[in-house]
């Protein structure tokens, strides 16, 4: 754990973790696909793998991840990144036979952190669309959305009446 709200996992992501959502059925059907409620909810704030694809040189994923975590720790001393707003936008993400349903979120200061990373590495690092995977073909699995291009290419907005009362539970 980086803080009580953030972790850095084995896939080199900094995440806002332990999110609580309410009014979610155990499973839903979207466009003929049965999807299951995820067992946990988080927001990936930055993926070191995604950043690595954008920078020149050959840093290892582990060393780059460690650098990004240190930058994040410094950044959050003056800029909190833990408050988020659920947006009324649900998207079905499809890659091959895998499908997930995400809800888009707005999170304060994440864009500012990406600006810092772009300046530090002198690279065109794409913003990562902030979202929560709420349903998946496998409740233990999600799919990444690492850029606006991936969001546009791999997802589309869907109407999900069962989720009209989706709400976050404040800690």
Compile the SSE list and pairings:
Blueprint: E1 6-8, E2 13-16, E3 21-22, E4 27-30, E5 33-37, E6 43-47, H1 48-54, H2 61-75, E7 84-95, E8 98-107, H3 110-121, E9 131-136, H4 148-154, E10 155-158, E11 167-168
Which regions are unreliable across 5 or more consecutive residues at pLDDT < 50?
none
Total helices: the number is: 4
Q: Let me know the average pLDDT.
A: 95
Strand content: 25-35%
Question: Helix and strand succession?
Answer: EEEEEEHHEEHEHEE
Order of strands in the sheet with the most strands? 4-5-9-8-7-10
Radius of gyration: 16 Å
Give a description of the structure.
By secondary structure, this protein is of the alpha+beta class. About 25% of the residues lie in helices and about 35% in strands. The chain is built from 4 helices and 11 strands. Strands 4-5-9-8-7-10 form a 6-stranded antiparallel sheet. The longest helix has 15 residues. It is globular and about 45 Å long. The two termini are about 20 Å apart. The mean pLDDT is about 95.
């Amino acid at each position: 754990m980086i803080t009580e709200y953030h972790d850095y996992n084995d896939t080199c992501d900094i995440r806002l973790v332990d999110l609580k959502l309410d009014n979610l059925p155990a499973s839903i059907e979207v466009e003929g696909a049965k999807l299951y409620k995820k067992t946990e909810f988080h927001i990936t704030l930055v993926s070191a793998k995604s950043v690595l694809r954008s920078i020149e040189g050959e840093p290892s994923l582990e060393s780059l991840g460690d650098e990004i975590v240190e930058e994040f720790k410094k950044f959050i001393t003056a800029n909190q990144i833990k408050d988020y707003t659920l947006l009324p936008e649900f998207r079905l993400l499809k890659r091959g036979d895998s499908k997930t349903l995400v809800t888009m979120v707005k999170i304060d200061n994440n864009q500012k952190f990406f600006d810092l990373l772009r300046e530090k590495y002198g690279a065109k690092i794409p913003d990562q669309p902030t979202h929560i995977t709420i349903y998946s073909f496998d409740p233990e699995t999600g799919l990444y959305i690492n850029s606006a291009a991936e969001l546009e290419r791999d997802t589309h907005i869907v109407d999900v009446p069962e989720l009209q009362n989706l709400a976050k539970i404040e800690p």
